[in-house]
Specification:
The protein is about 40% helix and about 20% strand. The chain is an alpha/beta fold and about 200 residues long.
Length: about 200
């Protein structure tokens, strides 16, 4: 049985595929495993592959305008970002699917990162440098790749996600790799299932 104490789980899927995805079933399996420890936990399902707004000039101007000085249009421009940040703050556990596309994260997952990396909300600047504000959270990264080995010098997805999570204060990050699936799918998936079962 899982010993998870999660009460609010944020599940993020970023695979461009609904059918035939490797990361989606693994993320579902992991969430089910966490629910074994607390069946009453709330799960928020965020499918970023359905579309996340990109940061543009209007977004940047709105974000760097003091909250009390923002116009109605600026507040509306940040509404989507605010919603994403709110659900991130509310979560105590994150389960993030990270398929590796061309050695990096999918564009929609990068767009999500850009929307939640908000100064004053998820991190702040101090005299000693930036400081993450989202403390005491746990994150699981389910890494799926066709040929890229997780953690290798050509894997620019895993390190990026670990770094950005740490940047906003989430340092307890566990990696569940299902990598090099095109080389040995059976062994890779078996290892991922084993790691999930051990949580």
């Amino acid at each position: 049985m899982s010993n998870s104490n999660s009460t609010n789980i944020l599940k993020i899927n970023s695979s461009g595929r609904m059918e035939g995805s490797y990361s989606r079933p693994l993320v579902n399996q992991l969430v089910d495993r966490l629910l074994q420890g607390n069946a009453k936990a709330n799960v928020v399902d965020r499918n970023v592959s359905s579309g996340i707004e990109f940061v543009d000039e209007n977004w940047i101007n709105a974000n760097f305008t003091p909250k009390d000085d923002r116009s109605a249009a600026q507040k509306e421009r940040l509404a989507g970002s605010d919603a994403l940040v709110d659900e991130l703050i509310a979560a105590d556990t994150l389960v993030i699917a990270v398929p590796i596309y061309n050695f990096g994260v999918p564009a929609t997952l990068k767009a999500w990162v850009d929307q939640i990396a908000r100064v004053g909300r998820t991190f702040q600047y101090t005299e000693s440098g930036p400081e993450g504000l989202l403390l005491n959270k746990k994150a699981y990264l389910v890494i799926a790749s066709g040929g890229t080995k997780s953690g290798s010098e050509i894997d620019f997805a895993t390190g990026f996600m670990r770094h950005i999570l740490g940047f906003i204060g989430i340092t307890d990050v566990e990696i569940i790799p299902a990598d090099q699936l095109m080389m040995d799918e059976e062994a890779s998936l078996a290892n991922a299932h084993k790691l999930i079962a051990s949580i």
